[in-house]
Specification:
9-stranded mixed β-sheet; about 25% helix; disordered N terminus
């Protein structure tokens, strides 16, 4: 079962009144709240030439938490990332529910089924897996230069629209326009939300998130930064091989069917993937997101998805107190964020030496990671992560004014800076494909 953090509040009937009171308090203290809030503040005016992207690079303001912008909204604003602003009560996060899944084959083709789902086979505690084996002759690497955006998730949405529609009020008949809407506020990848959760503690890498609105739903897709592109194109051979090690560990620990055995002599093809599609709510934000799943528990007695899923990781072996501290402060943050969002309960980590040999395996329970890091001084806090993500989504709602897939609101952040944004129409940042927009807005098909 999905075990929550001590401070996590899932929705129950008994909590509804308390949640409503908390929302009222949050509005008073939220960094994305009304005038005078500490988190969102006016940005210094800049000339049109200084704004990135040209064209319609105007900036819009932030209004009240969770509301869409409207005429007469406040002056241009930015969103602060200062940790102390988000160190408050843990926000409401509803029990994540899997509403579907899909697979990508060896050629990156989409299938609305579970053909790529793998099953966990527990290794020995000291397995001595050689992660280098196969790098030279049994490795097919996905082309990272091909930017897929949200395309695979959008294909799943088109095939499952009936699961995502709302219901007419008081039993009325829904209009075609109503049926064209999804009953969610945000559609995105789990990885984009993970970046948001870790932002208050990130000191090296910035991000760019493109947002477009279609029929009332906000779609969020990452844009590769120039720094990230340069880093990708200048990786050393050692770095490329170490990236392979993670996939190789998965191969040692997974079988293609329940009761099967791993096939360590097979080819590692990173085009292949099995993805869960999860629905949940963070405070007032209804979320639909998808993320890749490494494997599931093979026991027929395991809980339903996502409670049966397992995340597989590799990390350097820990030999000193300093290394353990760094592991807690940095690596566990990203592991926790990635697994907490879709309610994946277990993380199995293979600790390897400098030669790529797995010397030990350890299981981390997602719900217990927050306790594990409590003794670490000045360590990250789950509440800061979730509150920043929640307030960023509120900020997006106040900024995005136009319901037009041709308009992109580009949110930008660099370490030690505030979140800013620019607006672009019919630009290189557009990411919602015509085939998706056409079918989502074609009421004749409803």
């Amino acid at each position: 079962m999905w075990a929550s953090l001590e401070i996590l509040h899932f929705v129950t009937a008994a909590e509804k009144n308390r949640n409503q009171q908390q929302k009222t308090m949050d509005r008073r203290h939220s960094p994305c709240g009304h005038r005078g809030s500490a988190g969102v503040r006016s940005e210094h005016k800049r000339s049109r030439e200084e704004r990135s992207g040209g064209g319609e690079d105007s900036k819009r303001g932030s209004s009240s938490r969770g509301e869409r912008s409207s005429p007469g909204s406040p002056p241009p604003r930015v969103l602060s990332v200062r940790r102390q602003l988000y160190d408050r009560d843990f926000p409401l996060y509803k029990q994540p529910v899997e509403v579907g899944h899909f697979s990508l084959d060896a050629k990156r083709r989409f299938f609305s089924d579970a053909r790529q789902l793998r099953y966990y086979v527990q290794p020995e505690r000291c397995p001595n897996f050689d992660l280098r084996d196969g790098y030279r002759d049994r490795y097919v690497k996905r082309d990272e230069a091909v930017k897929e955006g949200l395309d695979h998730l959008l294909r799943w949405i088109l095939a499952n629209r009936s699961k995502l529609r709302g219901t007419p009020d008081q039993g009325g008949t829904a209009s075609p326009a109503f049926n064209s809407r999804l009953d969610v506020d945000f559609v995105t990848w789990r990885g984009h939300l993970t970046k948001l959760l870790t932002t208050p503690y990130e000191t090296r890498e910035g991000w760019l998130l493109a947002v477009s609105q279609l029929s009332g739903t906000l779609y969020v897709s990452e844009v590769e930064t120039e720094a990230a592109r340069q880093s990708r194109e200048s990786r050393t051979e050692r770095h490329e091989e170490m990236m392979f090690w993670g996939y190789r560990f998965e191969q040692y620990c997974c079988a293609d069917k329940p009761g099967g055995r791993p096939a360590p002599r097979g080819v590692v093809n990173t085009n292949e993937a099995y993805c869960t599609v999860v629905r949940t709510r963070l405070a007032g934000h209804r979320l639909l997101f998808s993320g890749e799943v490494d494997c599931r528990d093979e026991s027929p007695l395991s809980p339903p998805a996502p409670g049966c899923y397992i995340e597989l990781k590799t990390s350097a072996e820990i030999c000193t107190p300093k290394q353990r501290s760094n592991f807690h402060r940095f690596k566990l943050l990203k592991w926790w964020a990635q697994s907490f969002l879709p309610a994946v309960p277990r993380i199995v980590a293979g600790f390897r030496d400098d030669n790529g040999v797995v010397v030990s395996v350890e299981t981390f329970h997602t719900s217990k990671i927050s306790q594990l890091i409590k003794s670490e001084p000045n360590c990250w806090k789950p509440t800061v992560c979730m509150n920043f993500c929640c307030d960023f989504l509120s900020f997006v709602k106040t900024v995005v004014a136009e319901d037009d897939p041709r308009v992109v609101y580009l949110f930008s952040w660099e370490p030690y800076r505030d979140v800013t944004y620019s607006v672009h129409r019919d630009s290189e940042y557009s990411f919602l494909p015509d085939w998706y927009v056409k079918e989502m807005t074609n009421t004749d098909l409803l």
